[in-house]
Automatic annotation (TrEMBL):
The keyword Secreted is assigned to this record: no
Family according to the record: Belongs to the ATPase delta chain family.
Annotated Pfam families: OSCP
Organism (species): Allosaccharopolyspora coralli
Function: F(1)F(0) ATP synthase produces ATP from ADP in the presence of a proton or sodium gradient. F-type ATPases consist of two structural domains, F(1) containing the extramembraneous catalytic core and F(0) containing the membrane proton channel, linked together by a central stalk and a peripheral stalk. During catalysis, ATP synthesis in the catalytic domain of F(1) is coupled via a rotary mechanism of the central stalk subunits to proton translocation. This protein is part of the stalk that links CF(0) to CF(1). It either transmits conformational changes from CF(0) to CF(1) or is implicated in proton conduction.
UniProt keywords, alphabetically: ATP synthesis, Cell membrane, CF(1), Hydrogen ion transport, Ion transport, Membrane, Transport
Locations listed in the record: Cell membrane; Membrane
Cellular component aspect of the GO annotation: plasma membrane; proton-transporting ATP synthase complex
Lipid bilayer topology: Peripheral membrane protein
GO molecular function, one term: proton-transporting ATP synthase activity, rotational mechanism
Keyword Membrane appears in the UniProt entry: yes
Name listed for the protein in its UniProt record: ATP synthase subunit delta
InterPro entries: ATP_synth_OSCP/delta_N_sf (IPR026015), ATPase_OSCP/d_CS (IPR020781), ATPase_OSCP/dsu (IPR000711)
UniProt xrefs under SUPFAM superfamilies: N-terminal domain of the delta subunit of the F1F0-ATP synthase
Length: 275
């Protein structure tokens, strides 16, 4: 996965996400899944065809020309929900061709998260993505296999199904299958980004918490409440247990890390956890 940091690409993504939400309006689960699959397909084509993605992201040409090209290429292949999203994407101004690919891919993932949100299962999907990231990240052989871009996508999907089939939400399984089919870097990192994208659907920030012992549900809730007071916004807790840190507690929210070097805030958090 890739984070869109350029202002132009963020604006393009925001505009296209509005079109995506219109496309999902009134759609059932099967229709949203179909929309996501088509967007993933477009992202895959753009990822393979460098000349095409350059042409569709070329800011020196007018947007109507880019739209016309997109309609010629995809008009007969995409459904009535996906085509307007792709057209809006190519009409928008991205900072570069690769950002267009990343943007369309993110739109596909967002569509699946919208499906989970409407079904009331977004919390579960977020938690499953985070936990799978930790499981895969702790197994070097599995991480290496699933992150290998030269390995068979079909074979990796079989491995994913063996790992999660019947144990996670269908949306989670779809997201993981797509991620391992087109990995960029470590799959565990991609899963962490997906979990954070899930949290953003609910306008929450994520706190990555490492403790030496498990925290109870009540302790996690108290920690979330304390962090919400510190950061003045809702916080989702993603917990990892690592006995090697001793009796410590490490918390990362965005770029800020709360650990032994910021002992005042850490001691206050420990007191809150102790009740």
């Amino acid at each position: 996965m890739s984070t869109l940091v350029n202002a132009a690409s963020r604006e393009a993504l925001a505009a296209t996400e509005l079109q995506l939400l219109q496309a999902t309006d009134g759609a059932g689960p099967a229709e949203i899944t179909g929309l996501a699959d088509e967007l993933f397909g477009v992202a895959a084509v753009l990822g393979r065809e460098s000349g095409l993605r350059r042409a569709l992201a070329d800011a020196s040409t007018d947007s109507s020309s880019r739209e016309r090209l997109a309609r010629e290429l995809f008009g007969g292949k995409l459904g009535t929900r996906a085509l307007p999203v792709v057209v809006e994407a190519v009409r928008s101004r991205w900072s570069g061709p690769r950002d267009l690919v990343d943007g369309v891919e993110r739109l596909a993932r967002t569509a699946l998260l919208v499906q989970a949100e409407r079904a009331g299962r977004l919390d579960a999907v977020e938690d499953e993505l985070f936990r799978l990231g930790r499981i895969i990240g702790s197994d070097p052989d599995l991480e290496r296999l699933l992150s290998d871009p030269t390995a068979s996508a079909e074979g990796k999907s079989v491995v994913v199904d063996q790992l999660v089939d019947g144990k996670v939400e269908p949306v989670t399984q779809s997201l993981v299958r797509q991620l391992v089919s087109h990995p960029r870097g470590h799959v565990s990192d991609g899963l962490e980004e997906l979990a954070e994208l899930s949290a953003k659907r609910r306008e929450r920030s994520v706190a990555h918490v490492v403790t030496s012992v498990p925290l109870s549900d009540e302790q996690q809730q108290r920690l979330a409440t304390t962090l919400q007071h510190i950061y003045a916004r809702p916080i989702a807790i993603h917990l990892e247990v690592d006995p090697e840190i001793g009796g410590g507690l490490v918390i990362r929210v965005g770029d800020e890390v709360i650990d032994g070097s910021t002992s005042g805030r850490l001691q206050a958090l420990r007191r809150d956890l102790a009740g």
